[in-house]
Each structure stands twice: as C-alpha cells, then as structure tokens.
Amino acid sequence: MSSQRPLPQDPEMLAKEVTATIKIKDIKEIYRLKDRLSVKWWEPAVIFLLFVSGFGFILTVTRIVHTKDPEQFFIFFWFVLLLLTLIASTELLILKIKALRRLSEIQLRLIADLQKEVEQLKQARGTDQPPED
Fold first, then answer.
1. What mean pLDDT is reported for the chain?
2. Assigned domain for 113 exists
3. pLDDT confidence tier of residue 131, bands split at 50, 70 and 90
4. Is residue 87 within 8 Å of residue 51, measured between CB atoms?
5. Is 126 left (phi over 0), alpha (psi -120 to 50) or beta?
6. Would you say residue 117 lies in a domain?
7. For residue 2, what pLDDT band results from cuts at 50, 70 and 90?
8. Pairwise CA distance, residues 102 & 94, whole Å
9. Is residue 26 part of a domain?
10. Would you tell me which of 3, 8, 33, 127 could form a disulfide with 13, CB atoms 3.0–4.6 Å apart?
C-alpha cells in the first residue's frame, strides 16, 4: 500500500509533473549547497588565530635562539619562511573560497533571472511549451 498518488494519464501533464519534481529537487540541492558555502560566524576568528599563532610561534623561536651561531640563524630563517608560506597559502585558500561563494551567489541570481524570463516568454506565447529554435 503506497501513499503515492497515481501518475497522470495525460503525457503532457506527466511531463509537467516530472519537470516540477526535478526542479524541486534541484532547488533543494542548491539551497543545501548554499548553506554549506555560507559564511560561518567562526571563520574570521580562525583567520585571526592563524596570524596570532604564527606571530607567537616566531616570537617563541626568536627567544629560544639567542646564540649568534650561523647554523641556527639559517634554520630559523627557513623556519620563518616556511611558516609565512603556510600562513599565506591558507589565506589564499580562504580568499579562493570567498570568491567561490560570491560566484555561487551570482550564478544563482542569474539562474533565477533566466527562469523568470523563460516564464515571461511562455506567458507571452500563451503556452507552457518552451519556444522552439
């Protein structure tokens, strides 16, 4: 005993229902992905902690290395370079994610505008069928 309603016998009505079902699933997926991409409240705190921890780590190493030994200076130099590269690459990744979020917003807006235009064309034509090329 299924609680689903029977499929319509009219092929045009069936096509409309299938199209509507697919659109609903697509819209739900878009909003789910949009929620996953949205800015979370803790992201700026992570960026701030990244810089503070990197700066604090560099200060700690400078306090530990007091000797004028060239080998230790050489190791410290490469350590600082590695740490700055890590911080910069993490920042670059964060900037890329922000750009992807903005791109997603723009694409969603464009898709919504295009769907509105298609609906207006359908209404102006007086039919539910899309215009043929």
1. 76
2. yes
3. low
4. yes
5. left
6. yes
7. low
8. 13
9. no
10. 8
Domain tally, the chain: 1
What is the residue range of 80's domain?
42-123
Quote the CA–CA distance of 125 and 119 in Å, as a whole number. Answer: 10
Residue whose tokens read 């600082």: 80
- For residue 127, the 8-state DSSP code is S
92: Cα within 13 Å, side-chain hemisphere: 6
Residue 130 to residue 48: CA distance in whole angstroms: 51
CB 29 within 8 A of CB 43: no
Residues belonging to the chain: 133
12 falls within a domain:
no
Residue type, 44: P
- Residue 83: how many other CB atoms lie within 10 Å: 16
The pair of structure tokens assigned to 74 is: 């050489």
Residue by residue, DSSP assigns 13-70 as HHHHHHHHHHHHHHHHHHHHHHHHHSPPTTHHHHHHHHHHHHHHHHHHHHHH--S--H
47, 94 in Cβ contact below 8 A?
Answer: yes
Query: Which pLDDT band, with edges at 50, 70 and 90, does 73 fall under?
Result: confident
